[in-house]
Every structure is written in structure tokens, then in C-alpha cells.
Amino acid sequence: MSRKSWQGLILVAAGAAGTAALLGLADNYVLRLATTVGMYAALALAWNLVGGYAGYPSFATAAFFGLGAYTAGVLQSAVSLPFPLAWPAAAAVAAAFAAALGGAILHLRGHYFAIASLVVADVLRELTNMWTDVTGGGMGLNLPLLDVGGVAGQARFYFLAMGLMAALATLLTWWTDRGRLGMALRCIEQNENAAQVIGLDTRRAKAAALTLSGLIAGGTGAVYASWVTYIDPTDVYDVLLSVKPILMALLGGVGTVAGPIVGALAFLALEEVLWRNVLEFHAGLLGLLVVLLVLFLPDGLRALRRRAAAGG
Amino acid sequence: MSLRRTLSQRTLWAAFALLPLLSPGIGQAAQDTLRIGAPLPLTGALAPEGTKLRQGYELWLDQVNAQGGIKAGDRQLRVELRFYDYQSSTPKAVQLTEKLITDDRVDFLFSPFGSGAAKAASAVAEKNGVPFLASSASSAEVFDQGYRNLFGLYTDNSTLSEPIADLIHARLPKVSKVAILARNDLYPLSLANEFEKSARKRGIEVVYFERYAIGTLDHAAALAKLATTRPDWVVITGYINDLILVRRQMADQHIAPEVLTMINGPAYDEWIRAVGPQAENVTTASWFHPVLSYKSDDVFGSTGRFVELFRQKYGSAPDFTQASGAAVGVILQQAIERAGGVDRDAVRAELAKGGFNTFFAPVSFGPSGMADSYIPPVYQIQDGKVQVIYPRELATGEFRTGVGR
Amino acid sequence: MTYLQVLINGLALGGLYACIAAGFSLVWGVLNIINLLHGSLIVLGAYLAYFAHQAWGISPFVFAPAAGLALFLPAFLIQRTILERVMGKPVLATLILTFGLNLFLDNAMLYGFKADFRKVIFDPPLGLLDLGGVLLPLDRFYATVAGLALVLAVWALLRTTHFGRAIVAVRMDREAAALMGIEVPRTYALAFALGAFMAGAAGSLLSGIFPISPVASSLYLGKAFVICVLGGLGSLPGVIAGGFALGLIESFGTLALGPELALTVAFVLLILLLMFRPTGLLGRQGFQ
Amino acid sequence: MGTLLRFAGVARRFGGILALAGIDLEIRQGEIVGVIGPNGAGKTTLVNAATGVHRPTAGEVHFEGRRIDRLRPDQIARLGVARTFQIVQPFPRMSVLENVAAAALFSGGARSLSQARDQARETLAFCGLQEREALPAAALSLAGRKRLELAKSLAMRPRLLFLDEVNAGLNPAEMDAALALIRATAARGIAIVLIEHLMKVVMQASHRIVVLHQGRLIADGAPDAIVRDPAVIQAYLGNRYAQRHGTQATP
């Protein structure tokens, strides 16, 4: 079996073992932490498809996440659609938006693409804020409580739901990595002009990557909305929802399947330690952590492993 | 045992926080400690409000512990406040409320700041049957879930608009047009909606109703449009920074309606100092103000003494957020003392009975859990001073019309 | 009459907006770095002016250059030690690095200055000009004039002094400039420091009009983005055009669509511009 | 032997510069056409016009009777028009095999990645790169990278191939190998347009030579006729040389 499929097996085994252990032993707070890891792993994988594989620095993850959260929220509260329908619908809406966005800004490169994608979340936040009679605007939106057993039941249910999103994201990334789209995105990342000349429709490939990214981020947003039962625009369109997944992918190694997951685990562990001990100034220290990470880990932990493997 | 602050203490306490996780047994021995959980926004956009709430809590804690703790039946209870920073993010507030219940096993809970976070966290408290005192939630939507454990200190937003509308309708019948400019945010927006209802109820035409985006610094264009509608009464809702800006930019465009109502800024000294003479005759309303004078059978004894103690500790007069922090402490204390213990059902029953005579106001809770036992007074800035002009029995000044140019 | 008033309101902020965006455009054009730290630097400048006014009663409009100078050296050092290591690295590295720096500075100020808003209070208040019924508040007038003067001064500096020519040369062609004996790393540091100077000065001018708090830093960054793309990258005349254009758009946008849309209009415009005219009104093709 | 590619009045302007000023030219199936001309004559612009990199500002380009000058580069490539770059453009961090497999996958009609890799191995063998299959493209020598460009183009199973100075910078031994490869490629029925400065290669390989000068076609004919054409000499070697040596130029 090739190195990659061994990696795949280890990843699946670790995931299953971890899930079983957490379901059995952990109390609600640890389950909540694990759910957060699942959420950010999915978001990091979603970003990785565009930022890691195609090398396009997308800051639109928060926009897709927020759109998914609000679509699911409105569908469940106003139209009282049951969640098994609302969540996929929300993911689809986010994916459709991503495809449309792709058509509009994917011809831009470098800084211009980064800024355009960064600003999309702001626009969506303001529009959500403004459309009060549907989204509740500044007053936020309450979602129905899903009766899936008491507090413990809720914690387990959302841990599984978010775990499912992360698994789905991993599967999509694995399928992309080994398939035609993965090859196309790698060519685009390394030399987009040469990619066109060998007959690759780069616009379609990039749009496909962004659509997948939107699908995953939108679905994750939908699960998140039900999990917290109350969302408001500034919270679900927060720029950190775009930046943290990038940092996690960078930490774990971009353009790989396992990288974003490893990165999410490592980053959230760091943040939890940071937050638990230093109450006053943890956001500032987070900033410092980010700076150190970018300076010393250009392509993530895996670089460390590779450097270590090659005798440092 | 007051709240820990120095770094060494904090690391010790952090270790202490881990204890419950490791060995649940230890919890039982310290039974004569009352543990109250309080998620607070110490960083992020709501940091100023979070710090104010904490100051209120601390002042009450100092008084209680100075008097040897809470008398519950024959035992004296040491009070410990366990707080975590939820970084102004509502989901983290819910997460931390859960942690305070399951990990820190707190007996009672003070809610996070604001209506949104309070509503989200109240669901967790309700499911765990933990009485949950909301110090800063005033929107009716927070109390529409029929929760038994949720108690709100503030009266509904309509109690802020109705008194002023009555006052104007009675004193200035010729006031026929009102313009409303609201910050597009949970509490300010629901407040503006209440003013619209109150105005309509009395036949006052709403000639302008606009929302300004959070973070707007330049209101010139919005005010220019407002001016064209020639309103007699102007209502502006928002937080103190917004209201400083709007008041000054109104003066810059010589907009001077018969009545100018701005809610929650003008009652603060900070606002009066910032706008100077333009503060004249501006009306506002608020659940609390230092100028009030209630007698109370709580640790403070009276509004005046509370204000004095607050000024000694923090060097400035308390605003309604700081006061509400201390008020929920006082109410919980009285409920525990009446119940004679920390049993949640007994304390919940006492809270529901109400009749708490506090420095903040005479507080009883309605069926939904929202306080309905007092009318937030109406204030007006007269000669740089805050005067109470409504209700009659608390009034310290007469209602004046016309606003400085 | 309203339209005239709204026109004046829009123009009254043009110079100030240009000053806000000038430093950002310079750093983007010369170092090809999107400086997410810019908003916090503006707020820092505002605080310096606020404290100067509290302590010595200096007017923020006069204090602007001093506030800028105070940031010049620290910015030079930040570039030399931290940013120098990511010059030429992909967009992602520079964006995330400045995001981290911004998170740090923003929270340092939040921790140091607390989040509550502070206001420079003029006693006696500055008052306003009454131009035949149309009112122009003096604080905005001074801020815009001072802002414009600062931008033009920097523009002159770039065109006349040796240090200025070096920056322009590096912006045009980094390798060629190095061959001409220009010490490129030092020029990058000087350009970044000049950017910080403009940010500090803009902050000082701002503190004369608006209340200041660390939470407002992202608002100023957003404006700098829009003005820069609107007016055209890396050209100071472009920034002036962009500043006045944004002032008018916000002013008339609010009149037509209502105040809560002011922010949205600017951002939607930014996206449309990026899609159809990345070079902006006056600017040359941006640097990739 | 129908017309494969036709330029009809093709012009291309870059601001003030007229890079191509109305080119009329036809390339037939199986033909090797050499395109020569001094630097800046418009050779690469001609390739770019045909392969969609720069859209002509006037005139039309037809491939197999179908108009292609409005299409995107990837659409034209998939129709069967391949090209190499004057400055090599590999996918640096991908292996030699992956580079060629990509071309096979997107234009070479390969159904799956594994099929694309098989086709790639065939092409690599044909170009003599099979032992260096696992090397990253960036690790190849200049000659190796030039050959990789050719391999990528061949893996696209083109019917027309533009070789833009694919032999520049090669030593004589490498040049002979390249010449043999070009002939073997043409033998597979692929029409080749050879943009070249190396007279030795172009003279030996081409059935026909076309000369460009300042964006205009000044000669089109058999290699030995072209060399003696006064207009060509004048364009290449300047007026004084032509006058001094009258019309008989040295071959």
C-alpha cells in the first residue's frame, strides 16, 4: 500500500478510537472542546481546499460559515424545517453562493483576491444586520432546542454531528487529493499559466474548490447554529473564523489531508492552555503566537517532521 | 475570601479550578461556601460592560464578607464568585455557563452581559435547574421561553418609553411628530421599537425611523435627513459613545427639537462632561441612578450609602450596569437568608415570591421572571445636573422643554 | 439645501480619509504588504494625541506630526526585526503576520487603555462655519486641511528627497534599485516607518473629532482598504481622490439608503471595484 | 493533406507597438514549418495569438476549419494545439511523471489518473526521460527541462505543436538528440511549427521556412530558397551587408 493510503488508514483509526473514548468517558465540557475541535478541523479542511491545494489565499470561510448558520437558523425557526433537511439545505445555499462568488473574484490573484474574499464576510454581516424581519438583524436569531436527551445528550449529539462534518470534510479532501480535481489544483498552485496551456480549465477547477469549501463551511455553520441555539451577525461572520482555520492548516501543513486536522488539534490545545491560565491578555498572546507561527513554521509541523526526519 | 487578582494568586486559583475535575470528593468538605458562577465579557467588544458588572459584584462581595458572610439558618456562608471571561462571544458564554455548572458545581448563577447572551445561557441554567439572575437583560424576548429559573432585574423596555411619552403627552400636547434614530443592536433596537409603539399609541406621528450601523462615527448625513422631517421630539438610542457623537453632530447642524430623549448615555457623568452645555434639557430614563434615594434592608442600607461605598472603592459614581451587578448579589443574598440554606428549590421559591427591598429598587418578579415592581425613573439634565422628573414621589425637578442649540 | 449640506459633509472628511489611507497605500505599494496593523497604529496615534491634550493642552490638529514621529522609530524596528523575514513571501504569510501583530497591539491597548471611549474635549468648543445656511464644523475643517497638507508633504518628500526617490525606485523595480546601490532592506524599513508616521498623524487628527477606543481600529482599517482600492494602489494622488470619493459616497449613500447601509455601500463598492477595475480611479496596475 | 491552421490578416498591437501587422499563413498536416526572424520580429506573438495567450487585435485564426482566436488557452489546447514556452514553465514541485500525467489527464484524453500516468510513461520513454520519472521537475538540467516541455506537449496528443526555441542553450550533442526527437514526433503525423534561431536545426528539420520581420511575413518557401532571398538577408544582416555582397549570399 502506498504511503498515502497508510496515512489514510491511521487517520481513520485514530478518529474512530478518539470518538469512542470521548463518548464514553468525557464530561460535557471536554465534549464541548472536542466539538469545537471538530468544527475548526472542518473549517481548516474547507479552507485547505482553496488556500492549501490551489494556493488562493481565501478569507471567505467566515462568510460561508455565517451564511450556513443563518440559512439553517431561518429555515428552522421561521419555516420550522426539521434539522436533517435544514442542515444540508444550508450547506447547499453556502455552496451555491461560493460558486457565484467564484465566478466574480477568482480571476483576481494574490492580495486582490485576499481582500475581496475578506470583505465578503463584512458585506454579508451588514446585509444580515439589515434584513431584520427575516434574520432578526442586530437582535440575533434564536434556534429551536433539539430534544436529543438532556444536557449530556445534547453534548454527545453535537459532538457526533460536528465529528460527522469533520469526517465529511476529510473524505472530500481525501477524494480531491487523490483525484482529478486535486491534480488540477496542484497545477494551478505551482504555475497557473502553464496549467492553462496544458488544457486545464483553471476557472472551473478553482470554482469547484471554492464551492466545496463553501459546502463544508456552510454545513459546519448550520450545525454550529443549532449547537449554540442563538446566533448574531458579529459572532458568526467573525474574521477569526477565516483566520484561525488558515493558521491551523499552516500549523499542520497545507495542501495535505491530515495537516489541517493535526493543526486544528494542536492550535486549539495551545489556545486552551493559553486561555485557561492567562485570563486578562490571552487574545494578545494569541496574536504573538500567530506571529511566531508565521515566522518559524512557514509550512507547518510537518515541516518540523520533515526537517527532523532529514537529520534536522 | 475576596476575588483573586495578583498573578501568583491566579495561578494558585487556576490549579484550584482544576481540583473539581480531578477529585470530586473535595467539593463536599467545603460545604459552608456559597459558590456563585458568573461568565463575564472581560475582553472583546463588551469589555467595558463586563468590567462594570464585575465591579458591582465585587462591591457586594466586599460588604457580605465584611459582615462575616451570608446567614443561612444557623450557618454563616463564605461567598465565592467563580468568573470566567467569555471574550464577548455568546457561544463561549454558553460553554462557560455549562462548565460552571458541571465542573465548578456552582450553587447559583449570574447571567452573562446583555439580552442575547443571557437568553442563550438561560437555556443551560434551566436544563440544570440552577436559579439564574439576569442583571442586564431587558428585552421581553429573553423571557418568552417560560423558564422557572430565570429572574431579570430590569423591567421591560416598554417601561422606559411609556413614562416619557406620558410626560410629553400631558405637558406638550402640541408635540405631534417624533423622529427615532436607533443603533442597529439588540437592546437599542428593541428600545426604539418600544418608543415607536408608545408614540403611536398617543397619536404622535413617527416621521423618521432609521438604524445606524454599529461602529458608525459620522452621523452627519443621517441627521441632515432627520432635520428635513422637522420633528418636535427626537429619540436616539445607543451606547454612550454613539450618543456623545450624535448629540454633538446635532448641534453642528443646529437641530434643536422641543424634546430630545437619548437612552443610556446622558445619565452618566462621562456623557455630560463630553457634551458640556449641549447636555441641557436632554431627557433620558434608566433603571438606576445615584440621585435616587431608596431605603433598603440589604447590606447597603440605602441608595446613598451604596453610592458612597462605590465612590470610595472605584473613585467614581456608579452607573446602572455597575449598580445592577451589586443588586443581583443583594437579591440572591436575601433569598438565601429567607430560605435558610442553599437548596436551589427553596431559594427559587423565595425569589419567585419577590418583595426584595433593595438599594436599586423594590424588586419583585413577574410570572415570566422579569421584574415588574418598579417604574424606571425619567431624568433630565438641568444646569449640568441630573434631576429626576418622574415618578412624582421621587422627583427632584420640573420637566423643562426646549434643547440648547 | 440638504444636498449642499450633504455635499459639504462628504467633502469635509475627504482630506482626513486621504490621510488615514496614505500610509496603508504606501506600505502596500512599496513593500507589497497588506498592513493589517494600520488600524491599530491610527488608534495608537489618537491615544498619544489624547494624552498630549490632557497633559499639555496641545490641540490634536497641531500634535499630528509629533504623534506620527512617535510611531516612526518603533515601526522601523518592527519592520527590521519581524516583517523583514516575510518580504517576498506569499500573500498568506504577510497577511497573517500583520494580523497577529494587530491582534497583539489591539489587545495591548485594550489592556492598557481599557475599552471605554475617550474624547478630546475642546474648551471652549471650536464651533462651526456658517456658509449661508450650510454648516461646516471647524474640527472637521481643520482635520481635513491638516490631513491634506500631510499627504501632500509626504508626496513632496517622495518626489524630492533622496530617501523619497529610493522608496519610489524600490517600488518600481526592487532588483534594479539594488543594482543602483540603494540599500533595499533599509528603504523598506523607512517606507514602513513612513506609513506608521501617516497612521499616527491621522489618528491624532481623528481624536479631534471622534471618540477613540481600541475597538474602532478595524473600522479605520476597513476605510483604508476601500480608499486605497478606490483611488488606486500606491499613488498618493490616488489616495486623495479615493479619500474624497469615499467621503461623498458615504454621505450621499446614507442620504439615499439610510445610515445603516453606509458601511455596506463602501464594502460592496470595494468588491465591484476589485472585480472590474483593480487599478482604481487613478492608480497604475497594482503590484502582484 | 488539408489545411490544419490558417492565419487570415492576423494583427496584434501592444499599446503603440504593432507586434503583428496582418499575417496570412497556412500550416498543413504532417508539415514541419520553421519560423525564423530577428529578435522582436513577432515570432512568439504569433504563437501566443494561435494558442489564445494574446487575443489578436485584428484578423482571424482557424484550426481544422474552426475559428479559435476567441477561445481561452485551455479550450484551444484541448482542441489539439500544444506549445512549449520559450522560458520553460514546469510544475516545479511535481515529479516529472506527474507533470506529464497532468497534460495527459487534461488534454490527452486519459479517463483516470492511473491511465494518465501510463500515457505519461509512454511519452517519457519516447523522449528519453523515463529514468528521471520520480525527480521533481525543478531538479532537471536545462536540456532535461526543455525535453520535459516537449514531453508535456506530446502527452496532450496534439495534432499541431508549436516548439518555441526548445533547443536554445543546448550543446551540439543535445541539439542532435533534439533534432532526432523532432523528426520522430513529425513522423507520428504531428504538424510542427519550429520557432528557432539555430539555423542548423531549422534548416535540417523544416520542410518549409517562413521569415518574419517587424511583424510582417517577408518570405515563405523551401529552406535553400529562403537563405538566398535578398529580402531575408537584408532583414537579418542589415542593408549594408546586402549591398556590399550584392545578391549572392553565402549558404
What percent of residues of chain A are in strands?
A: under 5%
The percent of residues in helical segments of chain A reads over 70%
Biggest β-sheet of chain A, characterized?
2 strands, antiparallel
Task: Using the 3D structure, state the CATH architecture of chain A.
Answer: Orthogonal Bundle
User: What does the average pLDDT of chain A come to?
Assistant: 85
Range of helix content of chain B:
40-55%
List the quaternary state of the chains.
heterotetramer
Q: Provide the structure class of chain B.
A: alpha/beta
Helix and strand element order of chain B: HHEHEEHEHEEHEHEHEHEHEHHHEEEE
Q: Strand order across the biggest sheet of chain B?
A: 2-3-1-4-5-6
Counting DSSP E segments of at least 2 residues, the number of strands of chain B comes to 15
Explain what this protein looks like in three dimensions.
The complex is a heterotetramer of chains A (312), B (405), C (288) and D (251). Chain B has 13 helices and 15 strands. Chain B is α/β, with parallel strands linked by helices and 405 residues long. Chain B folds into two domains: 33-138 and 291-371, Response regulator (Rossmann fold, 3-Layer(aba) Sandwich), CATH 3.40.50.2300; 158-286 and 377-394, 3-Layer(aba) Sandwich (Rossmann fold). In chain B, the strands form four sheets. In chain B, strands 2-3-1-4-5-6 form a six-stranded mixed beta sheet, sandwiched between helices. By secondary structure, chain C is mainly alpha-helical. Chain C is built from eleven helices and two strands; from the N terminus they run H-H-H-H-E-E-H-H-H-H-H-H-H. A two-stranded antiparallel ribbon of chain C has the order 1-2. In chain C, a hairpin with a 2-residue loop joins strand 1 and strand 2 (134-137). In chain C, helix 2 packs across helix 8 (184-207). Chain C is globular. With 251 residues, chain D is of the alpha/beta class. Chain D is 40% helix and 25% strand. In chain D, the strands form two sheets. In chain D, strands 6-7-8-3-9-10 form a six-stranded mixed beta sheet, sandwiched between helices. The model of chain D has no long low-confidence stretch (mean pLDDT 86). Chain A binds chain B through residues 27-29, 32, 126, 129-130, 132, 137-140, 142, 145, 150-151, 224, 227-232, 234-235, 238, 276-277, 279-280, 282-283, and chain B through 10-11, 14, 17, 42-45, 84-85, 87, 89-91, 94-95, 98-99, 102-103, 115-116, 119-120, 123-124, 127-128, 139, 141, 183-186, 188-190, 211, 213-214.
